[in-house]
Amino acid sequence: MPKNSNTVSSLTGLRRRVLSRTVHRGWRWVQETGAVTARHPGRLRFGRIGVGTRLAFPQGTVFGERWIELGNHRVVGEQVTLTAGLMPDLDLGPEPILTLGDGVVLGRGSHVVADTTVTIGSDTYCGPYVYVTTTNHSYDDPHQPIGRQWPRMEPVTIGPGCWIGTGAVILPGASLGRNVVVAAGAVVRGEVPDHAVVAGAPARIVRGWDPEKGWQPPLRTPAPTPPPAENAAERSSVAVRPDGPRSDGT
Fold first, then answer.
1. Over the stretch 135-171, which tens digit does the pLDDT of each residue have?
2. What pTM was estimated for this model as a whole?
3. Sheet with strand 181-182: strands edge to edge
4. Most CB contacts within 10 A, which of 22, 58, 199, 238?
5. How far is residue 102's CA from residue 77's CA, in Å, rounded to a whole number?
6. Is 231 helix (H, G, I), strand (E, B) or coil?
7. What is the DSSP letter of 58?
8. Of 122, 121, 78, 119, which is closest to residue 103 (Cα–Cα)?
9. How far is residue 8's CA from residue 179's CA, in Å, rounded to a whole number?
């Protein structure tokens, strides 16, 4: 007797739903188990990892952990690369190379490549796929392949309270002041003063803070109204996600 096609379809759909739920539950377990914290560092032995700091699983490339110091209550998204030194297993001396302050957020897929010192100040938020590097290829010798020439390395400093938009690139030697906004896709080099907004490639200052006149040019929209106190904690937990803030930083 032939099987009813509706019955077969229903059983196939049921098996698929059960399998889908099983896969998602399993992946959630893997994400929770593979996350790195001070209590559960796994194979990673950072110079310091603060209280409340969490590196989401899966992590990106991580090496030179002994010279990486992570502050308290930091959020690092999935597939974030953190490296100290040109390659693994180097002795980089007694001082930290990469220092991330308290409350720093690194969005999904970001890279912080510290062949020499990188310092990111407290409460700096980076959107997804931000790239911070201390190293650039040199091309002084026109007869040698660029990849074989010794690179240039300069320290990078990002002050506290900055907001780095999605896909921004912070180049060697960059020094950002306090509460700087970097627009999505900007390429930043050189010094940026406190309370500046930069955009473009190469990035240029498009707005700044004047103590007497306020923001110049003036902001186009009024300041947002904070949520009621009873909703603040819930909204904060949604705004700061392991895969990075959603706004583009402009």
1. 999 999 999 999 999 999 999 999 999 999 999 999 9
2. 0.83
3. 54-55, 75-76, 105-106, 125-126, 163-164, 181-182, 196-199, 204-210, 214-216
4. 199
5. 16
6. helix
7. S
8. 122
9. 61
